[in-house]
Specification:
The chain is about 25% helix and about 35% strand. By secondary structure, it is α+β, with helices and mostly antiparallel strands.
């Protein structure tokens, strides 16, 4: 009998040939099964080792649900967001310089006075030089002995005259909440309007504006507040006559401005002013600020 390729196969050899062909087919089947199994194992390993690292081991310390699903690495439950919660803002209280506080003194008649300043903090530049300067339990005290005239001229013991008393220093102030957002081009008209409402004369306002308008115009937008409550609680004045008796001003106007860089879209609560002060009798006026 002719077999494959024309080989003559006897009846006795035919069962052997059929057996060999059966074994060959079985080998192919086994190899196919093994390949499928190995492929499945490789795919499973890729899934396991590819997804499990997505879960940060450190997350388990917080008791996240992702840790509870470690046994199901194919579809772990995402852990909740850990974005920090912003605290409710509170008024800041920092040590800030008080820039250029100046004091004008207007008695009803020419009068010799001792003007004393008590500051909860330290003094920097003082002009004219005080006749007395001392450290107190509260902070620092400076005193000037002057002869004051109704037009505001102050004359020291040596006969030199001054338009005002000047000082600066460091003190701890609270940031105001109310104020205004002022654009660079509006700085001067804004100050002219507000200073008139606060009771400054044109001369006093001019002194103020020539110092502070450039500071405001340095920014495209500036937050401006005239809340002087924190400042006036930490800087106090007293006045005595030649005999050492206290002299109380009939009118005391104190203007203190706080400024900082702002954004055009920043929202602030507008500051509301009280009635413009009416000057009468012995009048004292102070202005200054911080930034």
């Amino acid at each position: 009998m002719m077999g494959e390729r024309g080989v003559v196969v006897s009846r006795a050899e035919r069962p052997m040939a059929d057996c060999e062909r059966g074994v060959g087919a079985m080998k192919k089947t086994v190899i196919t099964i093994v390949c499928v199994v190995v492929g499945a194992l490789v795919a499973t390993a890729a899934i396991v080792f590819g997804l499990v690292p997505l879960i940060d081991p450190n997350e388990c310390e917080g008791g996240d649900t992702a840790c509870e699903n470690m046994d199901d690495p194919v579809s772990p439950t995402p852990s909740p967001s850990r974005d920090p919660v912003s605290p409710t803002p509170s008024p800041s209280r920092n040590s800030q310089p008080a820039y250029k506080p100046v004091l004008y003194v207007y008695p009803e008649r020419e009068q010799s006075l001792t003007v004393s300043l008590d500051v909860e903090g330290e003094l920097g530049t003082v002009y004219p030089a005080p006749d007395a300067l001392e450290t107190t339990d509260w902070g620092t005290r400076a005193s000037w002995m002057v002869t004051a005239s109704p037009d505001g001229t102050l004359m020291d013991q040596g006969g030199r005259t001054y338009p005002s008393l000047f000082w600066d220093g460091e003190m701890t102030l609270e940031a105001p909440r109310q104020g205004f957002i002022v654009a660079r081009e509006d700085a001067v008209p804004f100050l002219e309007e507000k200073l008139a409402l606060l009771g400054l004369t044109d001369k006093e306002a001019a002194d103020f504006i020539t110092f502070w308008a450039p500071q405001i115009r340095a920014n495209e937008y500036t937050f401006v507040s005239f809340d002087a409550s924190s400042y006036t609680a930490r800087a106090r004045y007293s006045f005595t006559d030649e005999a050492g008796a206290p002299v109380e001003p009939d009118t005391f106007i104190r203007v203190f401005m706080t400024i900082r860089v702002a954004d055009a879209n920043e929202e602030v609560t507008p500051q509301v002013f009280g009635p413009t002060p009416t000057r009468s009798g012995f009048t004292v006026v102070e202005w200054g600020g911080t930034m």
